[in-house]
Prior knowledge:
The protein is an alpha/beta fold. The protein is 28% helix and 27% strand. β14, α10 (298-303) and β15 (308-311) form a beta-alpha-beta unit. α4 (149-161) packs parallel to α5 (176-190). The radius of gyration is 21 Å and the shape is elongated.
Amino acid sequence: MTKLVQVAVAILIKPNGEYLLASRPNGKGWAGWWEFPGGKIEAGETPEHALIRESQEELGITPTQIQPWIKRRYDYPATHDAEAKTVLLHFFFVHAWQGELQAREGQQFAWQHPQKLNVTPVLPANAPIMQALSLPPVYAISNVQEMGEPAFLQALKQQLDQGLQLLQIRESQLDSAALAQLSAQVLQLCAPYDCRCLLNGSPEQAQQLGYQGVHLNSLRLLALTQKPDNLLVGASCHNTEQLQQAQILQLDFALLSPVLPTKSHPEATGLGWEKFGEMLNGLEIPVYGLGGMRLEHISKSQACGARGIAMQRAAWS
């Protein structure tokens, strides 16, 4: 029977978004491979305590601002220098720490940009986390229907200038010709900023119009049997069944809503932060909270285990 090893993992983040990777030192299994630093959780130890202890022992620092994020289970096969094992990784963001980094185990360090990885090879269990880190903490949703097209495009340009990196076009009121016209303007506007754009619709429609990704509503999600190729894929979820479907398909991310009361669905009772966090516990794909979200909710959302927040009206105000 393969043993289960629980591990606390630190994602040290600089203010510019770069994160720290460390090489596995000689003498350990998978030596030379790159990973997020961390170590085993000892018996009777909480993941938080293990994170601090391992950071002190391996890196010479003491985390002072940590935030729990997602957990990930991974089955490692046996190799010539390591036995087979299953790991349950508890990932934490470390935003601040005391002390200077030290390679106390002879490892190498490399600060990496989320979308420009330049070290290899990376431990298999860590690779999906890097994909998740390439997602920004804010996911904006278009609001052409209420704002009108000129006002929306002007607001989009302003948000792009301020760093917007992920956008969903959700305008079901538009016919195919009007959607194609809007899409062309949006994609042209976003291209110089490296802002990734997803269409709320079918994968075929998203590819035809030139989008980098597709966002699936819950009906499309439940009907899907395989993740579409060559697209960034997100999905809207409202319950545990839909979240599990998104995870089974290994989608790039999901939305969970509504977290708080929202004008879009005034009849819907918000999940609340406690329930939101409970539903994310154990998930292995990134999730954004949607519904009544504002920028000041990012840290609260991340503390519940989410990647960040999604906004429609508040994104353009």
